[in-house]
Design a protein that fits this description.
Distance between the termini: 51 Å
Strand content: 15-25%
Shape: elongated
Largest sheet: 5 strands, antiparallel
Radius of gyration: 24 Å
Structural class: alpha+beta
């Protein structure tokens, strides 16, 4: 086994709850229903644990147990124009996507579960290691010297880091039959802080590339805070043929409402449609800056109220 660091303690058995949980009882705050579901899934490599909304909901509920004290979601609205239908626009509710949010944090853990599961399950050899956060830079250099360029790094409570790698790193070997439950428990122990998980740039985990929607093009944020307020603005143009309709869709495990509105061909042709976009704050150079400023003010207000 290659020597990773001169510290011999890194090669000795690690007394950490995540590691001990492989041979003892499950840890974490997940419900018995979810634990049973995951344990059963460990015996079937062909089963995708997150292949249905019901299964995703179970994971979100389990990860949400530690997120009750987090701040509310600071979502916002964005506008899009249809690339398929002339005169069709929509305004979408977008969650803030922050780890510190009680709504988005647990869903980000589920997204990371989906992204990491394939690499972890198909690795011929998998080891885990707990190190102090302060030692990460020197440890990463040591990994590169040994030729180990692939890894997953997860923050843990107590200023610790959990390292997973598809090779020998002087850690604990994770048996193939226990990797899914281990991944769940590792993610359950990740604190809700900014960017708690990262991966190497190699091809083991793969990129997080998302293809752009080919039907809609994003324009800008909008001035109103809620879809209902946008509907009130658009209702002022109903006598000119502007119509609205609510709809919902499932995207990246986040249920989003949208308000679609259609501008008549005559208004698109003579250029008066821009009046509607201006009324909503779309195409305003200051709208993005104003949105960020407003979110910062809301965070400050919540922090002051909780103090």
């Amino acid at each position: 086994m290659p020597q990773i660091l001169e510290n011999d303690s890194m090669h000795s058995p690690i007394n950490f709850p995540l590691i001990d949980a492989l041979s003892t009882s499950p840890v974490g705050t997940s419900s018995s229903e979810v634990d049973h579901f995951i344990d059963a899934d460990d015996h079937d490599d062909q089963t995708d644990m997150t292949n249905s909304k019901g299964e995703v909901d179970k994971l979100i509920r389990a990860f949400s147990d530690n997120a009750k004290s987090l701040r509310p979601c600071l979502g916002y609205l964005i506008s899009q124009v249809s690339l398929r239908q002339d005169g069709a626009f929509r305004i979408i509710e977008v969650p803030c996507g922050c780890w510190e949010c009680k709504k988005c944090g647990p869903k980000l853990k589920v997204k990371w579960y989906e992204r990491l599961k394939g690499a972890i399950m198909h690795a011929p050899h998998l080891e885990s290691l707990i190190i102090d956060r302060a030692k990460w830079k020197s440890y990463r250099v040591a990994l590169r010297r040994t030729g180990m360029l692939e890894y997953i790094k997860m923050a843990q409570d107590g200023d610790k880091l959990l390292i997973l790698a598809p090779g020998e790193i002087g850690g604990t070997v994770i048996p193939a039959g226990q990797r899914k439950s281990f991944l769940f428990k590792a993610l359950d122990g990740v604190p809700f802080i900014r960017q708690p998980i990262s991966t190497s740039r190699g091809g083991w985990v793969g990129s997080d590339y998302r293809r752009n929607n080919e039907d809609w093009k994003t324009l800008d944020t909008v001035r109103p805070e809620k879809l209902e307020e946008c509907e009130e603005v658009l209702s002022k143009f109903s006598d000119r043929g502007v119509t609205t309709a609510y709809s919902g869709e499932q995207s990246n495990m986040v249920a989003m409402r949208s308000l679609e509105f259609f501008i008549p061909h005559e208004m698109m042709k003579d250029g008066t449609w821009y009046t509607i976009l201006w009324a909503l704050g779309i195409h305003s150079r200051k709208s993005g800056e104003s949105r960020r400023k407003r979110r910062e003010e809301r965070i400050a207000e919540m922090m002051a109220a909780s103090a």
